[in-house]
Structures are given as structure tokens and as C-alpha cells.
Amino acid sequence: MTVTAATGLSDLRSFLHGLPGVDKVGVEARAAALATRSVKTTSKASAIDLAIRMVDLTTLEGADTPGKVRALCAKGIRPDPADPSCPPVAAICVYPAMAPVAAAALAGSGVHLASVATAFPSGQAPLEVRLADTREAVAAGADEIDMVISRGAFLAGDYRRVFEEIVAVKEAAGAAHLKVILETGELATYDNVRRASWLAMLAGADFIKTSTGKVAVNATLPVTLVMLEAVRDFRDRHGRQVGVKPAGGIKTTKDAIKYLVMINETVGDDWLHPDWFRFGASSLLNDLLMQRTKLTTGHYAGPDYFTLD
């Protein structure tokens, strides 16, 4: 199925509801089985460095200040000041109002700037407001936009509205990559997660993202497994690769490695790269750095060795 904003929308509902149903017991059992696997000690250092390179280091608080954002950018560029071999993170993620500050701090670093435009986290603002938010963030230097879908519209079955809004934000974002946040914790079923994933990809998403991190249930392994299967099947059908970003609740190196194993076992090496998989996190980075130091020096750094974000 090929859907555009101008044609094919009448078939969208039948297509989405014609997707194979998700076996809840099966997907949860598969995710649990994958979570028991580990990487060899000899591969752990590479896995940690890859996970660091996949982090979208994030601050999304009402109390964010320019100083806090500049400090976060410095950390993203050089996560461990004592070890220049430590790789930078993938991106710094901030509110649109902080995009100019982050853009100046990241200039020339190669670290991407992501901005949560479109009335994050609720998405409950008129479309023109969300589009203006997106354009302003891009003009300020954001090269990635993390948008939220209208979950109320999706759950009411108004797929046309959700589709057209994603298309409009994609157009407003221009050359910036678009990550579409499904807020899976509010979608109720795995079938809805699969439908929302396909809807976002058909509308032009470059990434599909689990969560805002602002609701009770954020990223989970079973939900991410459903989304990984969706991007795999979408590429098989349409020839276009789409990234995946679990966000919220991923706090430890052990957690991150579970996701890396899941990627390898579900979609393969093609997605084991920051261009195609990200962790939306704030506290994860410090644990990765502590584990990295342990592998390098043989002992853990103190919990206050790395800056708190």
C-alpha cells in the first residue's frame, strides 16, 4: 500500500485494521526470552560504546536554564572528560525555546540537536501552533524534530487526521529528521502500537518513538519488539528504512544491552547504528559511563564522579 496526503486515505483504515494481530502472550514471551541473553565480556566494551553513541541526552523540564542546557551539551560532546576515547552521544534533546542555546553550544561538534516541537508532551494545540513550533525549532538549528501524535484522534479512529498532521509536520521540518512519538503507554494494546507505527511510517516518519517520558508507562521491551517488527516489515514492503527510539525508563547498562540484543535478534545489524536506533534518556548515560570505567580501570567510579543531569 502506498498512501499520500492526497490519495489513498480512504483505504487507510482498512489497511491498518487488516494488519496481522499481535499475539500478546507470544510477544511478551519473546521479549522476556531475549532479555535473558547477554553479550560476552569481550564484546561488552563495544556494546557500551555503541549505546553511548545511541543516546539522545535529554532535558525537558520547566526549570531548564541556558546554563543547564550548555552543561548538558558539553557532557554530550565529551561524556567523560578524563577519557578522550569515550564517544559522544547521538543528540541533545531540548524544548524549542532552548534550541538556540543548544545549537550554539553544539556547533561543529557533530552531535545532533533534537527539539520536541508540536506542543510536547500532550500535542493538544492547534495544528498551526504546532507547525510554527516546528519551523522555529528548525530555524534555531534543530536538525531533528520529535513530534507527538494526537493520541485522542488515533484512539477515536480518526486516522486521517493523525496521518495528515504527521505529513504537515514533516513538511514544516524540511530537511530535519522527524521522530514521531506514539506515546505507546496510552495506546492500550499492542495492535494499536502496530497500527500507529505503520501510520507514522506511511506518513513519512524517519523514526518512530515509544514515549514522551511524561506518562506512567514508557518504553518497554515488548512494545519496542512490536515496533522493531513493524519497521522490518515496512522496509520489506516499501524499501525504506525507519529508525526506532524507545524513551523513558531505560536507566541502566543492563537495560540498554537488552535492547541491543533485541535489535540484533529481530532486525539485524542494519539497525545497530545511531542513525537507526536511539535511546531517549537522561540517567542512562551515567550508568553507561560507570560501567565503561569499570571495564577500563577495574573499579567503579563513585556515583558522583559524573555530572548529574
UniProtKB/TrEMBL annotation:
The keyword Lyase applies. The keyword Cell membrane does not apply. Its EC number is 4.1.2.4. One of its GO terms (biological process) is carbohydrate catabolic process. SMART domains: DeoC. It comes from the Bacteria. SUPFAM superfamilies: Aldolase. It catalyses: 2-deoxy-D-ribose 5-phosphate = D-glyceraldehyde 3-phosphate + acetaldehyde. Pfam families: DeoC. GO terms for cellular component: cytoplasm. Pathway: Carbohydrate degradation; 2-deoxy-D-ribose 1-phosphate degradation; D-glyceraldehyde 3-phosphate and acetaldehyde from 2-deoxy-alpha-D-ribose 1-phosphate: step 2/2. GO terms for molecular function: deoxyribose-phosphate aldolase activity. InterPro entries: Aldolase_TIM, DeoC, DeoC/FbaB/LacD_aldolase. Keywords: Lyase, Schiff base. CDD domains: DeoC (cd00959). It is an enzyme of class 4 (lyase). PANTHER family: DEOXYRIBOSE-PHOSPHATE ALDOLASE. Belongs to the DeoC/FbaB aldolase family. DeoC type 2 subfamily. This is Deoxyribose-phosphate aldolase. It comes from Actinoplanes aureus.
